[in-house]
């Protein structure tokens, strides 16, 4: 039962390896189309592009039309309406009633053109900054997508390498356990060797379950980005050589991060917007001046002396001077000054964080390259040590546990080597992102390191 369950789990975990492998660029294209976080950032950028037209509208004329149609029925009948009496012509007859039936139609076309509204001008200038902020945030979201895709991609490869290494170790441990049992049966080894081999086998079975679970988790994380189940990923080429970051010194990277990082750019623009907000709120004390014009058409029809059509056209300027508003403007100015101080502090925090990320990524790349070189040497040494221990076990100068330890050391070294390569590649992308220099084209040289 246990063996059949293990077989099913292994088959489900590595079945995708038989399918056509997708490389990093393929996965990135899927993420562009399906990642919800990036789609949200794209929609936010589209909304931000509407800030400038909205701000410009405050400087343009406002034209409106309104009208009304009103019907009036008025009854002014005297108290003796309909009675017999002397009419105005001297004859005797029925006294008539009096009243009116009027229809009034009004149409007005009006125009207001701001001539001086300082708050509107500052809002327009601020809208340009807000649009630029949204573009910077979208560019940062693009960089984040690249690093998230690369991280998730190589996390899956690392999990596959761990599973493959564990399975290889399991195969070797199984052979060693069988050998120990045979030698114990013929009396050439003690029961201790068998117990040690059994313990090593049980341990590697537990590690295999953990590796299968970790691979499923990493695949799920990648699926959350690309929207589909990854059916197979292209691995790194054997013995691939990784390049050092260019330039090979730290200072240019840190300097670029402090000025060109998209988070820093957005924070700088936010500070400028906060300064505009102060000026906009101070405009609450300033007068306003508008050009106003209107044209009114009135038509009156019905039983009335005032029936007829009138047309009125007017043009002029309208001004307004605020005198007192309960200190609201003063309070808003103080608030905007405090928010400017906050934006300045946020900018400094963002700049320091960007510099710190650049330092960490740079050190990660260089230490990763050194670690890769050391582990490559360790792999050669571990292979030689395993061969020597196997030979010593055959001639009786080494015991079973020595071979098991040598096997474990070799597989651990290979796993650590692949993990170091993946981390170095991702840190290289993070270094460019921290410096604000990461582009889609930077995935091409990384993709060239993969087996097609």
Task: Record keyword descriptors for this entry.
452 residues, alpha+beta, four-stranded antiparallel sheet, two-stranded antiparallel ribbon, 6 strands, 64% helix, elongated, transmembrane, membrane, transmembrane beta strand
Alpha carbon gap, first and last residue: 38 Å
Low-confidence stretches: 1-19
Give a count of the beta strands, DSSP E runs of length 2 or more: 6
Secondary structure: helix percent: 55-70%
Main location: membrane
Subcellular location: Cell outer membrane
Signal peptide: 1-21
InterPro entries: OMP_efflux (IPR003423), T1SS_OMP_TolC (IPR010130), TolC-like (IPR051906)
Description:
The longest helix is centred in the middle third of the chain and has 69 residues, at 118-186. Helix 1 packs parallel to helix 6 and helix 8 (262-282) packs antiparallel against helix 9 (328-395). The protein has 452 residues and is an alpha+beta fold. It contains eleven helices and six strands. The strands form two sheets. A four-stranded antiparallel beta sheet has the order 1-4-5-6, with no helix packed on it. The chain has helices at residues 2-14, 24-34, 36-48, 51-57, 118-186, 191-226, 250-260, 262-282, 328-395, 400-434, 443-447; strands at residues 62-75, 84-86, 92-94, 99-116, 288-302, 308-320. The relative contact order is 0.14. It is elongated. Strand 2 (84-86) and strand 3 form a beta hairpin. Helices cover 64% and strands 15% of the residues.
């Amino acid at each position: 039962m246990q063996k059949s369950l293990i077989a099913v789990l292994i088959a489900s975990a590595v079945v995708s390896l038989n399918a056509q492998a997708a490389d990093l660029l393929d996965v990135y294209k899927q993420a562009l189309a399906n990642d919800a976080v990036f789609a949200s950032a794209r929609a936010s950028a589209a909304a931000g592009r509407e800030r400038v037209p909205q701000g410009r509208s405050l400087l343009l004329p406002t034209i409106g039309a309104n009208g009304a149609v009103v019907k009036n029925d008025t009854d002014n009948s005297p108290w003796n309406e309909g009675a017999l009496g002397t009419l105005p012509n001297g004859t005797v007859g029925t006294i008539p009633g009096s009243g009116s039936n009027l229809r009034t139609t009004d149409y007005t076309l009006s125009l207001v053109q701001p001539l001086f509204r300082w708050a509107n001008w500052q809002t327009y200038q601020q809208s340009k900054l807000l649009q630029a902020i949204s573009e910077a945030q979208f560019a940062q979201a693009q960089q984040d997508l690249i690093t998230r895709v690369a991280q998730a991609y190589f996390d899956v490869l690392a999990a596959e390498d761990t599973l493959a290494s564990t399975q290889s170790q399991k195969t070797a441990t199984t052979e060693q356990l069988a050998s120990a049992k045979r030698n114990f049966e013929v009396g050439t080894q003690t029961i201790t060797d068998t117990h040690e081999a059994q313990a090593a086998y049980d341990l590697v079975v537990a590690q295999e379950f953990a590796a299968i679970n970790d691979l499923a988790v990493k695949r799920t994380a990648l699926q959350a980005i690309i929207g589909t189940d990854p059916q197979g990923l292209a691995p790194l080429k054997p013995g691939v050589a990784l390049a050092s970051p260019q330039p090979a010194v730290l200072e240019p990277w840190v300097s670029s991060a402090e000025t060109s990082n998209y988070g820093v750019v957005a924070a700088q623009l936010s500070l400028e917007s906060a300064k505009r907000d102060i000026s906009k709120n101070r405009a609450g004390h300033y007068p306003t001046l508008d050009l106003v014009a209107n044209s009114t058409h009135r038509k009156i029809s019905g039983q009335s002396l005032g029936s007829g059509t009138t047309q009125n056209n007017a043009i002029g300027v309208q001004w307004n001077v605020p005198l007192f508003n309960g200190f609201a403007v003063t309070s808003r100015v103080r608030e905007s000054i405090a928010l400017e101080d906050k934006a300045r502090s946020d900018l400094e925090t963002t700049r320091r964080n960007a510099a710190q990320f650049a330092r960490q990524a740079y050190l990660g790349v260089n230490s990763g390259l050194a670690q890769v070189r050391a582990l490559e040497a360790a792999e050669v040494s571990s292979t030689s040590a395993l061969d020597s221990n196997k030979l010593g076990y055959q001639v009786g100068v080494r015991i079973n546990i020595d071979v098991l330890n040598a096997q474990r050391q070799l597989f651990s070294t290979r796993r650590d080597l692949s993990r170091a390569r993946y981390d170095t590649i991702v840190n290289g992308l993070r270094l460019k992102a921290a410096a604000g220099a990461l582009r889609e084209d930077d995935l091409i040289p990384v993709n060239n390191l993969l087996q097609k």
